[in-house]
């Protein structure tokens, strides 16, 4: 696996072709603004548009064959999702998350994952736990294949499945938004293969603890899984770990 800043920007013609393909992949049942948002989301997560890269409204309108109005609305939606920063009257710039921002999101994400797992373990049945194990398998395979995009996608699917099983609609809404940012962070952060294997192996520990309805063990497993990524092992406030130790 490699760091995003080791990837060269695509030649303009190749990038335009990919953007148009993403745009056309979305059915005309969606509005033009939704198609712009979804297409650019895919391009950003696949690193076809790199962190820090500027996105021109005029260019996108030309590539997609539409006016600048739906392009502007699509980029505004991307900003709401936390993936770009708007540049007035020009377009947008793909965000680059600082270490401090990654830490702050971790201090929100990890407790919410813990709450979701604690609730889900009492609602989930054997078939649900088996489905989580299958998601573990998919994530493991992505790591073994050095498929960074697949690994990030399956990791998100695993955690969001737990949130879904919690039957907490508000929590699911918040975590859906968080995990879109987390996918982008996962794509753009340097991750060694061995570190990835160790992190995804903790998925199975989470499932095992949930099967046993062991709240303390599941919280510890979630912390061990996510804290290294967010670099919060030595910075979290005392109440953070005290809540499950």
From TrEMBL:
Keyword 4Fe-4S carried by entry: no
Alphabetical UniProt keywords: DNA-binding, Transcription, Transcription regulation
Name of the protein in question: HTH gntR-type domain-containing protein
Domain HTH gntR-type as annotated: residue spans: 30-97
Record PANTHER family: TRANSCRIPTIONAL REGULATOR, GNTR FAMILY (PTHR43537), UXU OPERON TRANSCRIPTIONAL REGULATOR (PTHR43537:SF5)
InterPro entries named among the record's database cross-references: GntR_C, TF_FadR/GntR_C, Tscrpt_reg_HTH_GntR, WH-like_DNA-bd_sf, WH_DNA-bd_sf
Entry annotated with the keyword Transcription regulation: yes
A Pfam entry, by short name: GntR
Any one GO MF annotation of this record: DNA-binding transcription factor activity
């Amino acid at each position: 696996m490699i760091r995003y800043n080791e990837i060269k920007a695509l030649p303009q013609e190749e990038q335009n072709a990919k953007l148009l393909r993403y745009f056309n992949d979305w059915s005309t049942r969606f509005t033009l603004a939704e198609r712009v948002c979804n297409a650019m989301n895919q391009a950003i997560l696949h690193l076809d548009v790199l962190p820090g890269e500027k996105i021109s409204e005029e260019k996108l309108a030309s590539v997609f064959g539409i006016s600048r109005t739906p392009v502007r609305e699509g980029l505004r939606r991307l900003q709401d999702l936390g993936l770009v920063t708007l540049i007035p009257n020009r377009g947008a710039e793909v965000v680059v998350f600082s270490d401090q921002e990654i830490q702050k999101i971790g201090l929100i994400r990890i407790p919410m994952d813990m709450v979701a797992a604690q609730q889900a373990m009492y609602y989930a049945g054997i078939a649900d736990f088996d489905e989580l194990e299958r998601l573990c398998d998919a994530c493991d395979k992505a790591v073994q294949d050095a498929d960074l995009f697949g690994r990030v996608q399956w990791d998100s699917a695993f955690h969001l499945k737990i949130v879904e099983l919690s039957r907490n609609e508000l929590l699911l809404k918040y975590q859906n938004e968080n995990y879109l940012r987390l996918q982008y962070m996962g794509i753009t952060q340097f991750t060694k293969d061995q570190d990835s294997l160790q992190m995804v192996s903790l998925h199975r520990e989470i499932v095992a603890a949930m099967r046993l309805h062991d709240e303390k063990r599941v919280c510890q497993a979630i912390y061990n899984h996510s804290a290294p990524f967010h670099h919060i092992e030595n910075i979290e406030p005392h109440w953070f770990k005290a809540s499950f130790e």
